[in-house]
Each structure stands twice: as structure tokens, then as C-alpha cells.
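agent: user wants the structure for Pseudouridine-5'-phosphate glycosidase from Thermoflexus hugenholtzii JAD2. delegating to structure tool.
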Amino acid sequence: MSTPGSAVDFEFGAMGFSTKNAYFRFGPHVKEARARRQPIVALETVVVAFGLPRPANLQVAHEMEETIRAEGVVPATIGLLDGQIVVGLTPAELERFAGDEGVRKVSRRDLPIALARRQIGATTVATTVWAAARAGIRVVATGGIGGVHRGAPFDVSNDLPTLATEPVLVVCAGPKAILDLRATREWLETHGIPILGWGMETMPAFYSASSGLPVDARVDSAEEAAAIARVHWTLGGKGILVTVPPPADFALPRERLETILEEAMAEAERAGVQGWALTPFLLARVAERTGGESVALNRALLIENARIAARIARALEA
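agent: tool returned. relaying C-alpha cells verbatim.
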């Protein structure tokens, strides 16, 4: 294992990158996958550290990886450990993100701080996409992406500008329902990020099957999504979204969800909760007020997104 101060030299054929950087380390299964030219799907760690309660967080992380492997694709869960960005955490390393109280949420602005201080850092969608692009990984699977916050159009998640600058396809259940979905949709359009709907003409809203907002194109197969992504990248495009509705057996009605969110937002304002703490606060309130239904839903959509991401990654390598 290399450490800061000793260079890592790793060839990435799929995207033409060659990295020589002391701050990257690659799991043995990722190195082997590259050597064999196997497709890879990157996964974030914020959902493990902050997105789900224990012990579901670690269980879901393992289930997502197993779902990807079942499709003949290699999972690469990304996180910061011991002063390095690890692309492809081992099971023992992943456990540290599920149970350590000292885990830091790391967006792109936090990378130099967390690395210099050798902190355990859980990667957001933005950081995962950024790292995946440098590791030659074209596909990332997650739950929901960040976006434009309600009542604060100046408050934009770094997920969006990162998608606008990195050539990576992200499979998700749409922007998180706590956001201003219309403003988020407009931001994506303005910055040239295509939104594809998996079997849908409308964009899902994380917990709900439809936001009522249109996607740019419906796709009904991994091959179709891969074909559009290839053309997008050939033309110089960057990020692309494949939005997948949550499994029908788990999805929450939009009206019920909106009522819960309005109450939770008001409570957050009274309590002075803001910044990065707002999202976990709201998600926790939604979980409480749905009697745990949202946790089961989150688990189901994460696994489904991992499955579809793996199929698209495989189609891209075909």
C-alpha cells in the first residue's frame, strides 16, 4: 500500500487517464478489474455514514456491491482514509464509515482539508463523481443527487457544477425531494446535462415516482442509455443523468411527502438547522413521520439504481 509522499502510478485505459498521485489508492479488486478491462461502477460513502440508520447503512452498502457483482461488474466504493482517496474500499475499510463517529462529510471543497488532516471522509456525489472521473470510471450509482435548495436559489449543491464539468454518467432517483425540483431541473438544462428517464417520461423525485417535470428522453434499456452517453461524450459533453423511479411497492405519494417536508422545513428553520446539516435533518424527520417507510424505500431504490448502473456500465464496455 502506498502512502502520501510515495507516488501511485495507475493506468486507466477506458478514459485515457494516467494518474501518478500520492493521494489516490486503488483497491486490489479495482486494479484487477482494470487489468482485465472489466466494467466498474463507483459508489459514494455519504449514504453509509449519514444517509441511513445503523445497521441498515452497512447492510445496504454491501447489498449494493453484491448487486453490481451479480451483473458481472466490479463495484468501487470511494472514501477518504489515512490521507488518501481510496477507490475501491475493502469490506473492513467500509465498516469504518458505518460505525465511526468521527467520519467527515467531504464535498470537493473539503478534500484538501480532510486529506491533509488524514480524516475519515465520506464522499458526496460530487466528490465521488470527481474521483471516478480521475480513476477512469464512467458510471456512478447513488440514491438522489443534490440541487437547488428551496427558498434559497443561491444555495446550489456542488453535485450540479461537478456534473457540468466531469464526463460521468450518474444513475439516481432524481434530485432529493427536499430540494426545489423545478429550479434544479432548470439548472441542469442550462448547463447542458441531459436527463434520461428510465422507462419514464418524467423525472422522479427521489421518494416519489414522478416530479411532474419532463426528462429530455426516455430510455428503456441499458444499451440505449449507453448509446446516448457515448454520443454525448464524443461531442464534448460532460455529466449525464439516468433517473430511475423508486420501486413501485415502496414509493410515497407526492402529496403526503410534500406535507411532511413542509413541516420538517419549518422545524429546521425554527431550530436554526442549515448548511450541510439540513439534508440529514430533513431525511431523519421524513423517516420518523413515515414510520420508517422512507428508510425501506431508500434501501430499495439504492439497490435498484446499483443494478441499472451496472447494466449501463456493462453496455458501455460492449
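agent: one observation worth passing along. The first strand starts at residue 9 and ends at 12.
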